[in-house]
Write a structure and sequence with these properties.
Elements (H helix, E strand, L loop, with lengths): L53 E6 L5 E5 L5 E2 L5 H10 L7 E3 L20 E3 H10 L3 H9 L4 H15 L18 E2 L1 H11 L3 H7 L3 E6 L5 E6 L11 E10 L3 E10 L2 E10 L4 H16 L3
Antiparallel strand pairs: 1-2, 1-11, 3-6, 4-5, 7-8, 9-10, 10-11
Helix pairs in contact: 1-4, 1-5, 2-3, 2-6
Length: 296
């Protein structure tokens, strides 16, 4: 089992002409709310500095906690939510080839975020899932939830029921996209979510695709080009099995990944980061520290 104590580890050490913001709208503040540490320090194998305010690194095969920083702090998780959206969609075993249509109900009235998908856009459920995971397309996530048996209320109920079933006791969902700050979790809960999501080959494949085109319009000829929101995906020096990014002003920048690092499968969770590159730099620091420990 993954330890549940809190604390901070000891430290040392194509797209179209205008790709809209995929995580949230451009009108929210880029500065996340400040948060305090949630407990005393304890020793863990890694000593790499994580600049994210909340972090956890776990060996996916042994469940050994390698690094922690405020791992039980409850925080908004933004579009990390879409991993659970994907799990609930796939577990329902709905036809992936079924065409579903974006409606006014899928437009973000909370943050006012933009989208490439106009109201009336029609895509298969599979394509909606693909761009929701890879490019964090909010209207695609909303459309998936609305086209669930029982509609969006039943979908949200299924999300929270699945979270309870996974032992994610500090997690709660009110939105399928993550645009609401009431979607909250902890780093250790998200380790469990990443493990569960990795059981689905489509989630692994779609979340780590570098780019994907979909076709909409009356004749199905208008091409929308999406790119991955994770700048590490596709790099030859990274082998990423699953990933998801997220951002709203209340959550800060967020990143979860399962990646093979020097022969180990690591789950990395970095939350509440200030700066667009901080989470990615934290992942590099973890990899560099492991290489040092193994004498490379």
């Amino acid at each position: 089992m993954i330890p549940s104590q809190s604390g901070v580890a000891a430290l040392s050490c194509g797209k179209p002409s205008a790709m809209p913001p995929c995580e949230t709208d451009s009108h929210t503040s880029s500065k996340p709310a400040s948060r305090k540490n949630d407990g005393p320090s304890r020793a863990t194998p890694y000593r790499s500095v994580a600049h994210s305010n909340i972090a956890a690194v776990v060996d996916a095969d042994t469940s050994q906690l390698l690094y922690e920083k405020n791992p039980n702090k409850v925080t908004p998780i933004a579009s990390i939510t879409k991993l659970m959206t994907a799990i609930v969609t796939l577990e329902a075993k709905l036809p992936l080839a079924e065409v579903i249509e974006v409606s006014d109900e899928d437009v973000d009235d909370l943050k006012g975020s933009s989208s490439l998908l106009n109201v009336g856009s029609r895509l298969t459920r599979e394509d909606m899932l693909h761009i929701a995971l890879m490019a964090s397309e909010n209207r695609a996530a909303a459309c998936l939830s609305r086209n669930y048996p029982g509609g969006r209320p039943a979908f949200l109920e299924a999300m929270n029921r699945k979270a309870r079933g996974l032992g994610m006791d500090s997690t709660h969902f009110v939105s399928p996209s993550g645009l609401s700050a009431e979607n909250v979790s902890t780093a250790l809960d998200l380790v469990k979510l990443v493990k569960a999501a990795c059981e689905f080959p489509l989630i692994r494949s779609f979340s780590t695709d570098t780019r994907y085109d979909v076709f909409v319009g009356k004749a199905g000829k208008r091409r929308l080009q999406y790119i991955n929101t994770n700048r590490l995906v596709g790099r030859p020096d990274w082998r990423i099995e699953l990933q998801k990014t997220g951002y709203i002003s209340e959550s800060g920048r967020c990143l979860v990944m399962e990646a093979q690092v020097d022969g180990r499968n690591l789950i990395m969770v970095f939350l509440d980061s200030f700066g667009k590159l901080t989470c990615f730099a934290d992942a590099r620091r973890v990899r560099r520290q492991l290489a040092v420990q193994q004498g490379r």
